[in-house]
Amino acid sequence: MGSLVITDVYASVTTDEGEFEIIKGVSLTIESGTTHAVMGPNGSGKSTLAYVIAGHPKYRVTSGEITLDGVDVLSMSVDARARAGLFLAMQYPVEVPGVSVSNFLRTSVTAIRGEAPKLRTWVKEMKDAMMALQIDPAFAERNVNEGFSGGEKKRHEILQLSLLSPKFAILDETDSGLDVDALRTVSEGVNAFKQQSDAGVLLITHYTRILQYIKPDFVHVFFDGRIVKSGGADLANALESEGYEQFSPASA
Amino acid sequence: MTIAPPIDLSPRLTSLDPAVFGVPTGREVEWRFAPLDVFSKFFQAIDGAGSVTARGATEFVRNVDVLDLHSSWLPTDRPMAIARSLVQQAVVIDIPKDRVIEDPIMVDLQGSAASCYQHVEVNVGAFSSAVVVLQHDMDRDVCGAIVVTVGDGAKLTMLSVVAGDTNAVHISNWHTTTGRDSAFVGCTVTTGGRAVRISPSVTYRAPGGSAELLGVFLADSEQYLEHRIFVEHEQPHCTSRVTYKGALSGAGAHTVWVGDVLVRRGATGTDTYEMNRNLLLTEGPRADSVPNLELETGDIVGAGHASATGRFDDEQLFYLQARGIPEHQARQLVVRGFFAEVLARLNQGQLRDAMMRLISHRLGLPEQVSTSGFGS
Ligand SMILES: Nc1ncnc2c1ncn2[C@@H]1O[C@H](COP(=O)(O)OP(=O)(O)OP(=O)(O)O)[C@@H](O)[C@H]1O
Ligand SMILES: [Mg+2]
Asked: For the whole model, what pTM was predicted?
C-alpha cells in the first residue's frame, strides 16, 4: 500500500504582471487503490494542481509538501517523478512535431521500466493496447498529438497510462472532448488499469458523466485554489444539481 | 529576422575571369556576414592546390580532365571564377535519357591536396530518374561548383553532404537548371567544417519545372554555416519550395540563411514558398535569416515566405519528461523531430534514415532510439 500525500501546498505563477498565487493551501491524501474525483469551476486551479504534482517548471511551490510513498516529490525533476510512478494525463496534450507515436512510446516505456522492451513482444504489446482503446494502428506512425482530434489526444493519453502503468495517475479532464462511445472505451481503459495495478487515481472533471463509469471513492470540491468540501460519491450528484455557486464567497 | 536588402534585379555578372570580380571586402551584400579572414584564402589563386575527384568510377560517374569538359556554366563570384580557371579534374555524372535508376548513386569526393578546387557536373537525360549523393571531403579545404542540368520530364533527387568533425573551409555554388516538366529535389546536409558557405541556385529553362530545395544544418561552437539560396523564376508554371532548418548550440555558433526568390515578369502561374526555421539550443549562438521575395508579376498561383528563430519549446520538453524521458534525451528527440520534418520531404526512405542517423550521431543520440519508429 502506497500513498500520494499533498500537505498544505501553495503555488504561484510568475507572469509579466507579477506573481500570482493559484494554489492556496491544498491538502489531500490518495491511498493506492482509491479514486478521488476533484470537481470545480473553470479557472479554479485544478490543472495547476495537477501540473504542480507533475513538476511543471512554470509553477513555483511556495510552501507545503508532496510525498510519494514517503519520499519527497518536490525536489525531483519532472522525469524522475514519472519514473517514481507519477503520471499526468494532460488536459491539453502537447504536439511534438517529427516524433512518431511509436518512437515516443518506446522511448518512454524504456525510461520508465529501466530497460528497452524486447522488440517483438513490444510491438504486440503496443498494438494490443491500441486495440483495447480502439486506436487505429496507423497512429503509431503519426507524430505525437499532431493533428489529433480532441478525443484522439485523450485516448492517446490513456494509451500511455496503460503502457506505463504508474502508481498514481492524475487524469485532467480526460472526459472532455469525448463522445459517449469514446467515453466508455476510455473509462474501460482506466478501469482495467486500476484493476491490474491497484493504483491511486486523481480524476479531475467538470461533469459527473465520467463518474458513472469510473466510480470515485471520494469527491472533492475545488474552488479558488483550495478544496472547500470533501465527501463520498454522492457529493458529485449534489454538485450536478446545485452547481458551484454555493461555494462562492458572495453566496456565503 | 534581419532586414533584407532588395534583390539586385539586373542580370547577374558572370565571367570566367576572376579579375572581373573584386576581392570581397565584407561591405558587399553577399559577404556581409561571412568571416572573410577564413574564406579569403579562396579569394586569390592558391599555389599547389589540388582537385576534387570521385573515389572509384562507375557506369555513371567519371573523373575527367577539365580540358575535356563541355560546360556552359559561368561563375558568379571571384572564388568560383578562380576555382573554375584553376581546377584540373572534374567529376562528371551522366545519366542517359530514358533511364530509371533506383539505387542512389553515391559519390565519395576526395581532394588531392590540403586545398582543392572542385567542379562537379551532373546531367540527367530527358525522362530519366536518378538519385545522387555527394559526400564532400571534409579533410580538405574545398572551393568550387556543382552544376546540374535536369532534362525535360526528368527527375533528380540530390544530396550534398558536408559533414565531418573537422576544421575544413568549404565553399560551393550549386547551380541547377531544370527542363520542361522536370522535378528536382536538392538537399543540403551541413554539420561539419569550421566555415561553410553553400549557394544553391535554380533556374528554369522551360515551363512546368519544379524545384524543392531542402536543407538541414547543425552549428556548434565557433562554426560558421551559411546557405545562400537563389531561385529565379523566368518561365511560366514552375514551382519552387525551399525548406531549411537549422539548430545551433554553443558560443560563437553562427548560421546564415538567405533565401532570394525572384519571379520575373514572364513567370506567370508561378507557385513558390520558402521557409527557414532555426532552433537555438543554448545561449550564445547567432542565427541570421533573410528571406526575400521579389515579384515582377502578380499573375501567379502563390508566393510566400516564413522565417523564424526560436528557443526550445518548454512545453514539448515537459510533456516528454513527464513520461519519464530524461531532459537530455527529450531535447534530442525534439531536435531530431524538428529535422525529421524536413527530411520527411525526401521521398527516399533509405537516404532519409541515413541522414537522420547522421544527425542523431551528431546530437549524441543513441542509435537504437533513432532507428525505431522513424518514417514508415
Ligand atoms: N501559466 C500561467 N500564466 C498565467 N496564469 C495562469 C497560468 N496557469 C494558470 N493560470 C491561471 O490560474 C488560474 C487557474 O488555472 P487552471 O488552468 O489551473 O484552472 P482549471 O481549474 O484547470 O480550469 P479549467 O476547468 O478551465 O480547466 C486561471 O485563472 C488561469 O488563468
Ligand atoms: Mg484545467
From this structure: 0.82
A22 lines ligand 1 (CB under 6 A): yes
Does the beta-carbon distance from B329 to A107 stay under 8 Å? yes
**Is the sign of the CA dihedral A76, A77, A83, A88 positive or negative?**
positive
Tell me the pLDDT of chain B (376 aa) as tens digits: 555 666 777 778 899 999 999 999 999 999 999 999 999 999 999 999 999 999 988 899 999 999 999 888 999 999 999 999 999 999 999 999 999 999 999 999 999 999 999 999 999 999 999 999 999 999 999 999 999 999 999 999 999 999 988 899 999 999 999 999 999 999 999 998 999 999 999 999 999 999 999 999 999 999 999 999 999 999 999 999 999 999 999 999 999 999 999 999 999 999 999 999 999 988 899 999 999 999 999 999 999 999 999 988 889 999 999 999 999 999 889 998 899 889 989 888 889 989 988 988 888 765 444 333 333 3
What residue's CA is closest to ligand 1, atom 17?
A47
Q: Is residue B64 a part of any domain in this protein?
A: yes
- Report the nearest atom of ligand 1 relative to the CA of A49: 18
* Residue nearest ligand 1's atom 25 by CA: A42
Residue B1 belongs to a domain = no
Work out how many domains chain A is built from and give that number.
Answer: 1
Comparing CA positions, the residue from B264, B260, B194 lying closest to residue B227 is B260
Taking alpha carbons only, the member of B247, B240, B182 closest to residue B214 is B240
**A96–B333 C-beta distance less than 8 A:** yes
User: With contacts defined as CB-CB under 8 Å, which chain A residues touch B318?
Assistant: 56-57, 78, 94
Sequence-ordered list of residues with C-beta below 8 angstroms from that of A5, at least 6 positions apart, any chain: A28, A29, A30, A65, A66, A67, A68
Residues B262, B346 within the same domain: no
B330, B341, B368 ranked by CB distance to A116: nearest: B368
Q: Does the beta carbon of A174 lie inside 6 Å of ligand 1?
A: no
Going from the C-alpha of A166 to that of each of A83, A194, B85, B303, B314, the distances in angstroms are: 8, 10, 68, 50, 23
Say if B3 falls within a structural domain.
no
Identify all chain B residues contacting A98, using CB atoms and an 8 Å cutoff.
336-341, 344
Distance CA B336, CA B371 (A): 11
Phi, psi of B202 (to 5 degrees): -135, 135
CATH number of residue A70's parent domain: 3.40.50.300
B336 interaction partners in chain A (CB closer than 8 Å): 98-99
Quote the cell numbers at residue A179: 463522445
DSSP letter (8 states) at residue A195: H
Number of domains in chain B: 2
Query: In chain A, where do the E strands start and end?
Result: 3-15, 18-31, 35-39, 59-68, 71-72, 86-89, 96-100, 143-144, 168-172, 200-205, 218-223, 226-231
- Structural domain boundaries, residue B102: 18-311
Of B323, B368, B374, the CB nearest to A82: B323
Q: Tell whether ligand 1 has an atom less than 6 A from the beta carbon of residue A161.
A: no
Are residues B374 and B286 located together in one domain of the fold? Answer: no
pLDDT one-digit tens code per residue, A176-201? 889 999 999 999 999 999 999 999 99
